[in-house]
Specification:
single chain; alpha/beta; Rossmann fold; 2 domains; six-stranded parallel sheet; 7 helices; 6 strands; globular
Length: 189
């Protein structure tokens, strides 16, 4: 059983860094719970260039915070079940930083990292034969649900995806955290 996962908002808690950057640079406090859309500029007073600046600055860091439950459960999965495939929509410009962040928490050789680079994540998931994929963004979830019928998508519940009704797709299950991801996976062996 091959497990795949997105990074930001699923494994890496990038929001903590963005929140600090928005406050330091722009003097704006934007709580996580207020981010009702994936595009931050659509639900805040910040402009697209301001948001892009903060995201770029955050992704260049090699000390991004990880969700501790993700680290715990993914380490155990890698130890007991094998490799995990990470597929991110980050640009390749962040390859070194992304790899260093992952290597800080996971054994090199126990994970593979792919950058979708404008190609649908569904393409990678399908071609790699991923059985389960954990995602938080609706756009990618729809593509995966429609183009990867052999893959079960686990939608990590986040404020920016709560308006989407995942029940339309049989292969999508909403999960609240990594413990629930592992519980769901255990139902399949």
């Amino acid at each position: 059983m091959l497990l795949g996962s997105d990074l930001d908002g699923v494994v890496i808690d990038i929001w903590r860094v963005l929140e600090e950057l928005f406050e330091q640079e722009y003097g704006v406090h934007i709580p996580y719970s207020c981010v009702s859309r994936y595009k931050i500029e659509e639900c805040t007073e910040l402009s697209e260039p301001q948001v892009e600046w903060a995201i770029d600055k955050a992704l260049r860091r090699t000390d991004l915070p990880f969700y501790q439950d993700a680290v715990h459960h993914l380490r155990k999965w890698m130890r007991e079940r094998g490799e995990v495939v990470f597929v991110t929509s980050r640009g390749r410009a962040y390859t070194n930083e992304t790899f260093l962040n992952l290597a800080e928490h996971f054994t090199v050789g126990k994970f593979k990292l792919y950058f979708s680079n404008g190609v649908s994540k569904a393409h990678y998931i399908d071609s790699l034969g991923v059985d389960f994929f954990v995602e938080d963004r609706v756009k990618h979830s729809i593509q995966i649900a429609e183009k990867c019928p052999g893959c079960s998508l686990l939608l990590m519940d986040r404020p920016w995806n709560r308006d989407w009704d995942e029940g339309y797709y049989e292969n999508v299950t909403r999960v609240k955290d990594w413990e629930e991801v592992i519980e769901t996976l255990s139902l399949f062996g």
